[in-house]
Automatic annotation (TrEMBL):
Pfam families: Abhydrolase_6. SUPFAM superfamilies: alpha/beta-Hydrolases. Residues 22-167 form the AB hydrolase-1 domain. It comes from Aeromicrobium yanjiei. The lineage of its organism: Bacteria, Bacillati, Actinomycetota, Actinomycetes, Propionibacteriales. This is Alpha/beta fold hydrolase.
Amino acid sequence: MTRTEEPTPGRHIDVRGEGPVVLLWHGRGADSRGVLDALSELIAAHGLTVVTPDWDAGHPDGGRADLLTSVRRAREIAAEQGQDPDTIVVAGWSLGGVAAVSLALNASRIGAGVGGLVLIAPADGPRALDPLTGQPLPTELPSGAGRCRVDIVYGEDDTITPPDMVCGLELRLRAAGWSTSLHAIDADHGEVVGATYDERRDAFVPARTERARDGARTVAQIVAAATSSS
């Protein structure tokens, strides 16, 4: 069962399933939670509650307010279910992966602990501005000692956040003492979440190919495993 909430005017959050909470962030495209419907359903099928918000990186604040609103709502849902809010797993795709890293880096300042991260084809580098700070991720990452585990997934045919970029981010995290794992999938940038790029719309849309379904199924399994260790 899925319910849709409107925490602020014009912004919506889908809440799907029952169980430990996963906060799932889409990428750069404005208000694109629907692109992740298939992945969200697959994650929820593992006995999890999936909170998938709209947000807009093109907003003057870079999407910060929408993302933090979704963090607060996910934590409320976790508490309502008797779960420690600091054990929530945050999964982010593309630019949403940058935001997820930032949330973990700034957890104490924001006042929201993170139980685990799943970064799905995350961006990195000077052009990937963190929606929470407006800056790229730090060149020198803070120590990961005592912090959450990070699972990183990339598509072997990804040309938007290519494997070298994603593996470079994993290496930087690992060098800073974060506990990481790296997963390669037979997919491109959209297929890792069950989506495809539509040139006519200039946007990612849900895909129906078997490769995209396989990509989303694999990512859902990785997310489910992350919740069991958070």
